[in-house]
Every structure is written in structure tokens, then in C-alpha cells.
Amino acid sequence: AAAVFQTRRSYHEKDNRPRNVGSMNKTDTDVGTGLVGAPACGDVMKLQIRVDPKDNTISEVKFKTFGCGSAIASSSYLTELVRGMSLEDAARIRNTEIAKELCLPPVKLHCSMLAEDAIKSAISNYYTKNPKTATTNLGGT
Ligand code: FES
Ligand code: FES
């Protein structure tokens, strides 16, 4: 299993430079902040989105992940994926898509779950700050 894991981590290892690491001012009204933890291991992910209110799309994404390589790769991939996306579409991203793209082994599935939880949490925070723009139902997650 270790050998399989090595090859499958190649996405992250090959270009070992996670994209969009950083933070934004969480008091900005157009910024939504998600902070989530993985009960399985205690790792934590902070994900922030800046939303263009004209069309409800994500114009900027930043993350900080205090966790394993798979969690960092998952959040890095997620930030690339959601930039330019509408909040509606971003809310529909499933961790299985992330896990598939990164070829995460089953034991690392919860790392991609952290990324799904983080984007939902960030969107929900944005809607809390900007209730009038809320068109997406995030329920049932
Ligand atoms: Fe060690 Fe996630 S369990 S970093
Ligand atoms: Fe827990 Fe990766 S987030 S091991």
C-alpha cells in the first residue's frame, strides 16, 4: 500500500508548490471564510473566497492547511478548480472529484472531504455576510 500511495501522490510531489496559499482580510464584506477540521486526524483547513457580487462568481481564493500532504494537495487543487466558478457550482463540488483527480487512496479520502467542507463553509460564511445574494441551498451536507 505504501508504494501505491507514493505513485498516487505524484500530483502533489511533482510540482511541490501548492497554489494560492495565503489569507485575505476576513472582515471584508466580499470575503467568505471557511474553517474546518477533520475529526479523523485533527488537521485543519482555512479557505477563503472573494466573490464578485456582479455575478456571484469567485474571483480570488486563498487557503492555509495545517495538515498532511493530501490535505494540502486537495486544497491547492480546489482553489484552482473554484476560481472563476459561480457559488452555485462551487457548492456542488464533491470530495470524490478531488480524490479522483489526485488519486487519493481510501485512507486519505477524509483529506479531500476537508476541502469539500472548507469550500461549503466559506460559501455559507459569505452568504451569512451577504444574505441578499444567497441563492444556493447548502443544506444536507
Ligand atoms: Fe498527520 Fe493528517 S494525520 S497530517
Ligand atoms: Fe487527515 Fe490528511 S487531513 S490525514
UniProtKB/TrEMBL annotation:
What residue stretches are annotated with the NIF system FeS cluster assembly NifU N-terminal domain? 16-130
| Cellular component aspect of the GO annotation | mitochondrial matrix
Alphabetized GO MF terms: 2 iron, 2 sulfur cluster binding; iron ion binding
Q: Which domain of life is it from?
A: Eukaryota
Q: Which UniProt keywords apply?
A: 2Fe-2S, Iron, Iron-sulfur, Metal-binding, Mitochondrion, Transit peptide
Q: Where does it mainly reside?
A: mitochondrion
Q: Quick check: keyword 4Fe-4S in the entry?
A: no
Named in its record, the pathway it takes part in is: Cofactor biosynthesis; iron-sulfur cluster biosynthesis
Its subcellular locations are: Mitochondrion matrix
Q: Which GO terms describe its biological process?
A: iron-sulfur cluster assembly
Q: Which co-factor is required?
A: [2Fe-2S] cluster
List every stretch annotated Disordered: 9-29
- Family label: Belongs to the NifU family.
Q: What does this protein do?
A: Scaffold protein for the de novo synthesis of iron-sulfur (Fe-S) clusters within mitochondria, which is required for maturation of both mitochondrial and cytoplasmic [2Fe-2S] and [4Fe-4S] proteins.
| Listed name of the protein | Iron-sulfur cluster assembly protein
Q: State the species of origin.
A: Xylona heveae (strain CBS 132557 / TC161)
